[in-house]
Structure to design on (460 residues):
């Protein structure tokens, strides 16, 4: 394998738990106006409706929470709640980066094994750059691509730019929808390392269990072994 | 000149007027709580304080407006106002891109003249990609770099990546602070095309009028002539 590309959020470092913690607090704050089980549904609908304009990331998430709070409370939600949502967004943006198990060793091992190693991550440019800097991994990557959406055309373009054709490139990530399916469609290899925890409803998809260029690993530790077998 | 790099906002297309129009409406909405001349000052202070976490762009601007609205009204601003600020943000994000005079012809002429042409723009990844797509200029650029901050190190890196050393690269932009001073510091050339209209206070800086690698043009139309003289 010439090129090994890693996803960032929930592949190299924990990310979803930050969103879930904020969403739990959001549910508690809005409980006077909306039952928690409906609120999650309303928030998701707002997030998905806003995705085309806001993209992925914390700032868009906060704006969608505020919009949902005003909607479900019929304009009754107090400013103290809206202010707290903004402060929680800042807290999320400033949050330390916690690497997943065996990540630092594995990326270093893969690089030392002669593979070209890059990061392909979705989201807010500034936020992702800051996370990478705080992760301590920045020096391991030959290139970093922050993208607004991960589709087949994107992988073709990046695998051509950084690798030498899709058949010699592998993407390692936790999201079946973003890191696996479009890579396989582009002709590349995909290693799926599921994240332990609930998956954001918008990212859910069925893993292509029997695809010849698909592998599923329980954790990062298995990656060098898998690579050496290809 | 081997490489000609263009800034996007207020160099290739109008951008500031969108922010000023929203800010005018913001002042009108908040007038019951804060005199307009103080409000601008309070908003700028909030924006600058949030820049490190939010970066540049419309979503951060909206969040800073909401934060300022709650502050200056002592929590009295109604939800209808906050909701309108979010909707105005979406309106800004979806706004058509209006090119400045002679931009399309000039970029095409420069490219046809054998220069490598790229775009270096600050801001939100998704927003900038969408604007470039709507501008109709995307095919003219050999590369597009959306960056979170423009400093000397950034220009050194991008001029090495896309050009062949700073002394054969020129940056064309409207912001003295972001497009001119750091480029000259890096050893490159800088062409300043001031935007007709007020400059965001955070971007204001004195132009280096007598620097040997600095030029000031009244509009895009003068660029091919300037390039041919170098």
């Amino acid at each position: 394998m010439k090129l090994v590309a890693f996803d960032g959020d929930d592949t190299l470092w924990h990310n979803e738990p930050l969103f879930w913690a904020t969403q739990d607090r959001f549910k508690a704050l809005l409980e006077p106006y909306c039952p928690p089980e409906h609120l999650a549904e309303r928030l998701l609908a707002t997030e998905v409706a806003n995705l085309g304009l806001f993209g992925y990331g914390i700032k868009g998430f906060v704006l969608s929470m505020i919009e949902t709070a005003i909607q479900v409370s019929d304009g009754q939600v107090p400013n103290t709640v809206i202010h707290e949502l903004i402060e929680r967004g800042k807290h999320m943006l400033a949050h330390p980066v916690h690497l997943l198990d065996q990540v630092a060793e594995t990326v270093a091992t893969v690089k030392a094994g002669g593979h070209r190693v890059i990061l392909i991550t979705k989201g807010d440019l500034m936020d992702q750059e800051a996370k990478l800097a705080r992760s301590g991994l920045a020096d391991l990557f030959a290139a970093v691509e922050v993208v607004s959406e991960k589709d087949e055309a994107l992988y073709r373009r990046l695998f051509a730019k950084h690798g030498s054709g899709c058949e010699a490139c592998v993407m390692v990530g936790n999201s079946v929808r973003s890191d696996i399916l479009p890579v396989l469609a582009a002709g590349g290899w995909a290693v799926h390392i599921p994240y332990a925890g609930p998956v954001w409803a918008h990212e859910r998809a069925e893993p292509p269990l029997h695809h010849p260029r698909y592998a599923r690993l329980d954790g990062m530790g298995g990656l060098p072994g898998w690579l050496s077998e290809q």
Chain A touches chain B through 33 residues (CB under 8 Å). The radius of gyration of chain A is 19 Å. Chain A has two domains: 3-14+98-229, 16-93. Residues 36-54 of chain A form the longest helix (19 residues).
